[in-house]
Amino acid sequence: MRTHKAGRRWSRLATRLLVVTMLALPAAAFGAGGASAFGGAFYPAQRLGNRGVDVLAIEYLLQHHGHDVPADGQFTSSVDTAVRAFQSARGLGVDGIVGPRTWAALVVTIGRGASGPAVRAVQEQLNEKRNAGLAVSGTFDDATHAAVVAFQGHAAIAADGIVGAVTWTNLAWHYAYPDMSAGLCDQDPDGNGTANWATGAAVAQLEAAAASFAGTGQGQVPLGDASREHGGDIPGHSSHEVGLDIDVWPIRTDSAQCTAGRITWRSSTYDRAATRQLVQAIRSAAPGHVRLVFFNDPTLIAEGLTTEYAGHDNHLHIRYCERVHPNSLYTC
Asked: According to the UniProt entry, which residue ranges have a biased composition of type Basic and acidic residues (predicted)?
């Protein structure tokens, strides 16, 4: 898609708990890879302003419980109202945030033969996060059963084809991979391959920003590194471990940022006006969910759009955030 936990010591510990350290990376973005037990899996808190597949799952689950909300992956005021009504009816804290307790109350155990919006939620999750290629039919058919079993094996949990609390948690926590047709191009400056994974919310928020920027006719948005499929260390980065840090490149005056060399804000081909538009699109696509954007252009810093940080002359580091997150570095 965030209970505040203060202190750097806890932040470092929480980060380590969130990632899988013994990770077999896929040869391609959706390669088979090795099964990994997601010991740090948790329900990603989602609220007003979020977007993406986890919001879509929440909308379908709200429909399952009788709430009339659209299934469009956008956490709008109507979804906020439905979440608050659900929380009130279940005796939960009424704050509009779908955190661990609200997720746990929303999810239902389903398996082969089930039908309805909760099944659609599972199918959407599997398609987005494991490229399952399922028809989002709302029917828990043989293909859905097989995809659930495959995911359970991937997550090293009981592979019984039944989507219960443990499977829901692992599905919701698992990172998503961006759609490069949404105005993005893949750059790999540090040789980290397909380190483009991020939380469902971060991916969708970036896709929306890239699509908006593409509409200006100034080229695609070059995507650098985000995270590994299950988090963990990435060479050349001190963060990028929890799926909420994403690097993009600045925009060039010739709009060739996806085909020509990377530049800095000092380069003669640097387009400040276009890069400003990109940062504005990033912030607009995720209202209340961008903690900061590191980039050292002094003009954009003076305008309050970016933040200075050493080593960020040639790329923009977006840090998305949630109201509730185990790591205080990622709380809004």
From this structure: 226-239
Distance CA(303)–CA(276), nearest Å, equals 10
Has residue 163 been placed in a domain?
A: yes
Per-position DSSP letters for 158-178, written without gaps between them: --SS-B-HHHHHHHHHS-B--
Angle between helix 200-214 and 272-285 (nearest 10) = 140
CA 120 to the chain's CA centroid:
19
Q: What is the pLDDT at residue 234?
A: 86
- Say how far apart CA 26 and CA 22 lie, in whole Å: 13
Q: Which of 173, 196, 217 is the last residue of a domain?
A: 173
**Is there a single domain that holds both residue 193 and residue 134?**
no
| Dist. CA 8–CA 68, nearest whole Å | 42
> Which pLDDT tens digit goes with each residue over 181-195?
889 999 876 777 789
- What's the chain's Rg over C-alpha atoms? 20
Cα dihedral 43, 210, 96, 7 sign: positive
Same domain membership, residue 188 and residue 162:
no
- Taking only the tens place, the pLDDT of each residue in 256-297 is 999 998 899 999 999 999 999 999 999 999 999 999 999 999
Q: How far apart are CA 166 and CA 30, in angstroms?
A: 22
Amino acid at 98: V
Structure tokens at 243: 């799926």
- Statement to judge: residues 23 and 156 lie in one domain: yes
**Structural domain total, the chain:** 2
pTM beyond 0.85: yes
Residue burial 159-168, b: 16+ Cβ < 10 Å; e: rest: bebbbeeebb
Q: How far apart are CA 57 and CA 46, in angstroms?
A: 11
155-169: pLDDT as tens digits = 999 999 999 999 999
